[in-house]
Amino acid sequence: MNLLTIFLQGATGDPSGFAKYQGFIMMALIIGIFYFLIIRPQQRKQKAIQKAREAMKAGDKVVTAGGIHGRIKEVSETTFLVEIAEGIRIRVDKASVFASSEDVQQK
User: pLDDT above 70 covers what percent of the chain?
Assistant: First the structure.
């Protein structure tokens, strides 16, 4: 059933009582389910990632969004200085850095 069918069924029925609000109740139920199964868990995951980024310090192993593995050498307000090889350092935005799986397994 598509949305139009649901609204048309509600319009042809008896306009008194429950049938009058059936389409609205169904849409509210679908939106509620969508929120609790998709949006809310995603928000929790984003908060956990943000908290992990704030807790990162010099010496932590990280992986950038581009797949570059390295170790944090310096932390600033919006960026990290990451050493990817001996003497080779790159500055990356905090939003593109994730904790290394090796580092998470050790903790």
Answer: 78
Q: Identify the helix (H) or strand (E) that includes residue 60.
A: none
Which residues have C-beta within 8 Å of that of residue 53, sequence separation ≥ 6? Answer: 94, 95, 97
pTM as predicted = 0.60
Instruction: Report which DSSP code applies to 37.
Output: I
- 60 neighbors 81 (Cβ within 8 angstroms): no
Q: How far is CA 104 from CA 33, 78, 86, 88, 91, in A?
A: 32, 22, 23, 24, 22
How many Cβ atoms from other residues are within 10 Å of residue 80's Cβ? 25
- Determine the Cα angle at 30 with ends 5 and 4, to 5°: 15
